[in-house]
Design brief:
TIM Barrel, 566 residues, 8-stranded mixed beta barrel, Alpha-Beta Plaits, alpha/beta, 5-stranded parallel sheet, Rossmann fold
Length: 566
């Protein structure tokens, strides 16, 4: 609820009387003061100053129209033209019928004729007007997003339904706008920066759709919905927004995406129409060559495929269609590389669709909240496998599993993960946790506290995908981690690009200074292996040694290196 509404509910209402004649001010003050707090102004200029000073607590203005200097009509015009003041109702004080009509057309709520012979009528009119406008304010407060001034999502959807009802033959575009990794921007630049950015986007969206009979809302922390008559040039909305906030976009890490479902099928539920626009919006996530996408036939087929995967997950877990593969990790800082550990990676062997890449199903499960069930499956399978290999070969091959920010923030996570290890009879030194770099950028204090607790229990913590997020060197020095895992993009061209090699060498130097080990993934070529070893990288994984393999096939690496240091 807006502050000016809330402040009125339990306190004496504040009324302003504006009249150049002292006798009139005194009469009205005497009538009103038993029920209201009265503010007096004798001219238009004084009135406007007091209105602005009391704009959040002023319940009503009683305004004389005929005053010297800035008259009542001018004051009424200024109030109605100011977005911060127009919510305050104005009752005009006049004895001229023509003036009454004109003032009502200008936005006055009511009028009180002079002279003031019947105090009960005056009090009744004021009370009724205040009650009416406060009711309107309360309704408005439930309609609008407080930060941007756009509709909230619920009201937006209701309004869109009304548009469909009254204009069934008008083609409408469903549009989703999203700020890429908004939480990271908040973490880097502060919440005030994020709020300012959202307000700017809200203002530019409102300005663009105002004369196009469209509506808009903010539907989550960093997303906007727009519903407007179909246009062949939806990019104009995008350009209107980016032009408006161009000063904030100097940082290349800030990126806005837009998805459009053009001429949306009105047979579909409104939420489904915007789901399709969101699907289009998400299709350019991570694609820095595009920022706008339209939902089309190809996307429809992809969406149907995704829905099939999401729908099949429960059955797949029950039938053990998911298989944990293991990619060996080799320590290369010695005369001969030796098996150091492994990373657990999930695969899906679907009975009809065949082997499905995790790059296809993991984002779907992350989006619909099913990923935690899959994570727990991997955690348990990996722990069970470590215990089995330990019993079979007499040596422990540590396995690392991925842990998301959502996992870490879940109440009871530490007890859950330690419970899994206890059930399988292994310890934290045989079970490493990989946490993505981006996990530390939101709720960082809470994440750091949990990770510190895990390290105290003996877990080795690897920062996965290092170099793809936004960790500053200062932040890196304070994070509770044991291993930096270089993203494969650093490794891909290391043997052909001098800058990439120098970057890896720099990261290794920093890691040495911070007493961290470095793991490089995605190593495929002998030249990459040699350069990484010379640079001081401790451990590598990739196709150079082996692609991820099932548990039975992985055992050959254990057998080949049994008796060597692991």
């Amino acid at each position: 609820m807006n502050e000016f509404v809330e402040s009125r509910l339990h306190f004496k209402r504040k009324v302003m009387v504006v009249d150049d004649e002292e006798i009139n001010r005194k009469i009205l003050e005497k009538i009103l003061s038993p029920e209201y707090e009265v503010i007096l102004a004798e001219n238009g200029d004084e009135a406007m100053a007091l209105v602005r000073e009391n704009k959040d607590t002023l319940s009503i203005i009683l305004l004389d129209l005929l005053m010297p200097g800035t008259d009542g009509f001018s004051v009424l015009g200024m109030i109605q033209g100011d977005v911060e003041l127009k919510h305050i109702p104005v009752i005009v004080l006049t004895s001229e019928t023509t003036a009454e009509v004109q003032s009502l057309k200008m936005g006055a709520a009511d009028f009180i004729p002079k002279p003031y012979n019947v105090p009960e009528v005056i009090l009744a009119r004021i009370g009724k007007t205040i009650q009416l406008y406060e009711s309107i304010d309360i309704v408005s407060a439930t309609q609008y997003d407080e930060l941007t001034g756009l509709y909230n999502k619920d009201y937006f959807m209701e309004y869109a339904s009304v548009i469909d009802q009254y204009y069934p033959d008008t083609g409408m575009d469903a549009i989703v706008l999203d700020i890429n990794r908004f939480h990271v921007l908040n973490e880097l630049y502060g919440r005030a920066f994020g709020d300012r950015l959202l307000k700017m986007i809200g203002n530019s969206v409102r300005g663009y759709i105002m004369d196009k009979k469209g509506i808009a809302c903010r539907y989550n922390a960093d997303g906007f919905l727009v519903y407007m008559p179909h246009t062949e040039s939806p990019e104009k909305l995008f350009l209107a927004i980016t032009d408006h906030i161009s000063g904030e976009l100097n940082d290349a890490r800030m990126r806005i995406r837009m998805g459009i479902y053009p001429e949306a099928d009105k047979k579909l539920d409104l939420h489904k129409r915007f789901d399709r626009a969101l699907f289009a919006c998400n299709s350019v996530k991570g694609d820095y060559s595009r920022q706008i996408a339209c939902y089309d036939t190809e996307m429809h087929e992809q969406e149907a495929y995704n829905e099939r995967l999401a729908g099949d997950m429960e059955k797949a877990l029950g039938e053990r269609q998911f298989i944990v593969y293991y990619q060996p990790k080799f320590n290369i800082q010695g005369d001969e590389p030796y098996l150091s550990s492994a990373e657990a990676l999930i695969r899906w062997k679907h009975p009809e669709l065949g082997m499905i890449s995790p790059g296809k199903f993991i984002p779907i499960f992350e989006e619909n909240g099913m990923i935690r069930r899959l994570d727990r499956f991997v955690w348990r399978e990996a722990a069970r496998q470590v215990a089995e290999w330990k019993d079979k070969y007499g040596i422990a091959v540590p396995v690392s599993v991925n842990v998301s920010r959502v996992d870490l923030m879940k109440p009871g996570f530490v007890d859950e993960i330690t419970g899994i290890l206890k059930d399988c009879g292994i310890g934290p030194k045989e079970y490493m946790l990989e946490v993505t770099e981006s996990a530390y950028t939101e709720d960082s204090d809470r994440i750091i506290s949990i990770v510190n607790e895990l390290r105290t229990l003996g877990f080795t913590i690897e920062m996965d995908d290092f170099g793809t997020g936004y960790s500053s060197l200062n932040m890196l020095s304070s994070l509770p981690i044991d291993v930096l895992k270089l993203d494969m993009r650093f490794v891909r061209d290391i043997h052909e690009n001098e800058k990439d090699l120098r970057m890896v060498e720099l990261i290794v130097d920093i890691a040495k200074y911070l007493n961290l080990k470095v793991v490089a993934e995605g190593v495929e070529k002998k030249e990459q292996y040699a350069l990484l070893k010379d640079a001081g990288v401790h451990i590598i994984q990739g196709f150079y040694f082996s692609r991820p393999v099932p548990d039975g096939e992985f055992e050959k690496f254990i057998e080949e290196r049994k008796g060597k240091r692991v």
